[in-house]
TrEMBL record:
Species in which this protein is naturally found: Agaribacter marinus
The keyword Transferase belongs to this UniProt entry's keyword annotation: no
Pfam families recorded: EF-hand_5
Signal peptide annotation: 1-23
Keywords, alphabetical: Signal
Protein known as: EF-hand domain-containing protein
Membrane-crossing segments per the record: none
Amino acid sequence: MSIFTKKTLIGSFLVVASAASFASSDLFDSLDVDKSGSISSSEASVHSVLSEMFATLDENADGELSYDEFAKAGLE
Ligand SMILES: [Ca+2]
Ligand SMILES: [Ca+2]
């Protein structure tokens, strides 16, 4: 019984964690139109705030925002 309860709790945590990570990558996925795994400046141009922050966020200056660089913007 206690093992069942423990498993149920762990299961609930996993559901919450995956729901949260899905929510935070939702905007990234929708902006990454070509699904290259990064956001180019033209992909960012549809989002006014991201577009303004683009140069600042692009820390390695490769002209693309990786998910890590994008995440620093704190956009939802
Ligand atoms: Ca892309
Ligand atoms: Ca970059």
